[in-house]
């Protein structure tokens, strides 16, 4: 499997799509035709075209305006693209649907640049939502200039709202920030022990400061009263509307969305889903139990449509560089005695992944540090040696700093690198965090930081996403970052490891057919070919022909899922 060249071979596609061949359809006519455009298909056998014909929610034909005209009938809707660009719908390979929707309807902090901005955003929310309930938010940064040492405290939030509990998730999603009222409501004191794989950061007297690391943030989040069903539904709808606005036709959940399956299934039956969804189960029991396997098999059998899919299980091998919780066996550059967090012993991880793989389940593993990536690949290799299928397309989520040998091993084991290029140089995403990764991880690890080019050159499979709401959901921003590896103001000069830049075509591929491959959807989605689902995005500009720094200035004009418009630009 070299650079996706054999992801969807002509033979595979012929078998998968034979039942929908236009030749077999004879006099088939189109419901919708898009004409006079620049169509980039992601199909090596027909890389570009002018027009697309759609019928019954699928692509009927692709070709020149003249060739597609034969599929027109009196009732066919025709859209004159006037030279605009058509791509396969973007697939975000890693999001958190509930959290992303919550970001949209609660307190979103990504645009905050100082504590005064945080204060104003919280106060705006309080004015719009009076009462005594919890105030929830996402996206705070370690880099606010008024934050001594880069660490938040409960007193900072007490000064904003002292009488309502506040919980704010960090921009990196591996820490939380609470006020004194939240600690009081939950009964967290100096005597409260730290949970496994997490900590309540404490002052010199042992009193929690309000900063929660790793599972301590989960400990608090799990004890916050659940949102009303109507509010959860509002968040899900908001997330899917945002996806459509950005040209995304499938969202792949990296965890936290399992409990939303019944609601999503109801919408699917009612015909009101407008975004395709793949939902992974996260944090399975270790060791894996027979009861868990039975539960996952039941879910896989129940949710397996083109709209709603399960069948993937996610583990966390470590944390993140920015919190000193990614697993770095040789130590951090700024704190050599600190090695981060190793969430699973190798023997336990090997046994769990082998069991799941042999039962046919795809496995995602969050692994950022070099030690975590190595042990995850060890586990995938052990599963294959124990007889697990090779083509399960196991995935490493994030894959930020592998050992050199583990770049080639990724390809040899047919493991997908699921990466988030919008995070490559985070100045545009998270206030004050540029340069932090390098200071903590060190110059040697910098040689392999976000190694997109090395993964492709080694023959590895690459899928792009965002980890939304950890970073923004905009695919065009991710494509831009993968190509230029600089912030919008041109930093760092010369680019962040410029040798790792991708071409525009390669970056688009990772957001379309590459992401489809990573979720076993490449025979039905990810490229514009006859018989595939008519999931398309129309852009105002041809992003292959404009300055790479301007890629995310292009506008989404139209999003189609199954041939139906889910977003039209005003």
Poorly predicted spans: 1-26
Let me know the number of strands: 24
Mean pLDDT, as a whole number? 92
C-alpha termini separation: 42 Å
Helical run tally? 20
Q: What Rg is obtained from the alpha carbons, in whole angstroms?
A: 24 Å
Task: Set out the fold topology.
Elements (H helix, E strand, L loop, with lengths): L9 H8 L4 H4 L6 E4 L2 E3 L7 E2 L1 E5 L2 E6 L1 H5 L7 E4 L4 E4 L1 E6 L1 H9 L1 E2 L6 H14 L6 E6 L13 H5 L7 E5 L4 E4 L1 H7 L11 E5 L5 E7 H7 L7 H17 L2 E6 L7 H10 L5 E7 L7 H13 L5 E9 L29 H13 L3 E6 L2 H16 L9 E4 L6 H8 L3 E4 L16 H6 L1 H4 L5 H6 L3 E4 L10 H10 L19 H8 L1 H6 L17 E4 L16 E6 L2 E5 L2
Parallel strand pairs: 1-6, 2-7, 8-15, 9-10, 10-11, 15-16, 16-17, 17-18, 18-19, 19-20, 20-21
Antiparallel strand pairs: 1-4, 2-3, 4-5, 7-22, 11-12, 12-14, 13-14, 22-23, 23-24
How would you characterize the overall build of this protein?
This protein has about 575 residues and is α/β, with parallel strands linked by helices. It has a domain at about 100-220: Roll (Diaminopimelate Epimerase, Chain A, domain 1), CATH 3.10.310. Helices cover about 30% and strands about 20% of the residues. The strands form four sheets. The chain has an eight-stranded parallel sheet with strand order 8-15-16-17-18-19-20-21. A six-stranded mixed sheet has the order 3-2-7-22-23-24, covered by helices on one side. A six-stranded mixed sheet has the order 9-10-11-12-14-13, sandwiched between helices. Helix 4 crosses helix 9, helix 12 packs across helix 13 (about 370-385) and helix 18 (about 475-485) packs antiparallel against helix 19.
